[in-house]
Amino acid sequence: MSRLQNKTALITGGTSGIGLETARQFIAEGARVAITGSSANSVAAARAELGDKAIVIQADAGNVAGQQVVAEAIKNAFGHLDILFVNAGVAEFGPVEQWSEAAFDKSIAINVKGPFFLIQALLPIFSKQAAIVLNTSINAHIGMPNSSVYSLTKGALLTLAKTLSGELIGRGIRLNAVSPGPISTPLYGKLGLSEEGTKAMAAGVLAQVPAARFGTPSEVAKAVIFLASDEASFTVGAEIQIDGGMGTL
Questions:
Q1: Residue 55, C-beta contacts closer than 8 angstroms, at least 6 positions apart
Q2: What is the pTM of this model?
Q3: Of residues 117, 150, 188, 214, which has the active-site annotation?
Q4: Active-site residue, 188 included
């Protein structure tokens, strides 16, 4: 298909999981794609896989000054930007009494502060029919224990999808959000849990999903493609929940 033919797109956190799968599908739909990743290893792996089909930029999603650097790289590569998928994020969980200020600030920086200032930095080069899709989470809607800070950050992003929609639609920029439930990605391996702990957490989460399975990155990517494409030209400030019914409980 070619729903994104001749579109330029930036995917943050595009070197693994949902971001990388979305990059693959954007390319298949005809887009010129740039992705960011935070680690040298993930950047190298993505470059090896995607080759000249994508521009791969190493960037810290939580560093405000770095967002301007990313915007300059996109301007130099494409001249303008049609699609932004804000996907980079960190998921850290724990009881409220165990949170340190440093850990709290890290989650806020990566999940909220960096995305806000990236959008700001990109404003001069967004096209007049641009689409921004924010990757939030079903955790913004449910009271999952030990997810207080993660849910807070995703709720903030969801609010941005609403407020910036009203502010930017006059410039021809649409904002929408996807809110995944549990998705099979490398994210769960980054939580610092033992193998047994990871399996126990996964089983506990799965018990809350009416569809009785984890989702796939491809299922999220397909929703992002819709929101980024001209098929969603009248969709503004909306949220698509991709959660197997988890948010209905």
A1: 33, 34, 35, 73, 77
A2: 0.93
A3: 150
A4: no
